[in-house]
Amino acid sequence: MADIEKDDLEELDEELVVVMTDEEGNEYYYREEMIVPVGDKQYAILIPIEDGEEEEDCGCNAGCGCSEDEVDVYIARIDTDENGEEIYVDPTDEEFEEVRKAYEELMVEDEAE
Length: 113
Fold this sequence. Notes:
By secondary structure, the protein is of the alpha+beta class.
């Protein structure tokens, strides 16, 4: 992934940008799409931010092309470190399945409204 410029991140305005670093020190940028509560824990649905991505969220399904591209979505459990800062960690397989089910239920409820 190419480096994302600071100006690009500032353009995302009020959306939360999450930076994750792999074992090799490579940084990956995600925007927090939504929080899914499961039990007493919270999980973030994260969408990758590509270099030069412009935020276009028209919210329609009318064939404009905005929903035609499939996007890899990541799930992260939100924990708190010893300094009280939020950190994003990989969920267990069981947690992943619980969050996936809860997310699908939320989407069904949202479509029904």
